[in-house]
Amino acid sequence: MRQSISWMPYPADxxxxxxxxxxxxxxxxxxxxxxxxxxxxxxxxxxTLYLGSNYLAYTNLDLPRSELLQNPNPDISxxxxxxxxxxxxxxxxxxxxxxxxxxxxxxxx
Length: 109
Fold this sequence. Notes:
- The protein is mainly alpha-helical.
- It has one domain (12-108).
- It has helices at residues 15-36, 43-58, 66-70, 74-92; strands spanning 99-102, 105-108.
- It has a two-stranded antiparallel ribbon.
- Helix 2 (43-58) crosses helix 4 (74-92).
């Protein structure tokens, strides 16, 4: 059974823009896959990119979001940061603030 993405963590007034940004990221994944040298549909590569991009967004590090770079919106940035934290928690089963990624790897405190 295919599940749809829940846009509920995002305030109603910005859901459309967040959804547009998410779709842009999904479409851009194929290009990113090629740039980093992952084989097409490589699960471990996709998981690594998913984990890394959510961590970057959650910790508010620079994450290329072309729409947000061109038209900054603090509400959307905060919603994406909050959503990234929820994604990390769902994936790893621990509070996002306990997660750190270092050159040595993933650390859960």
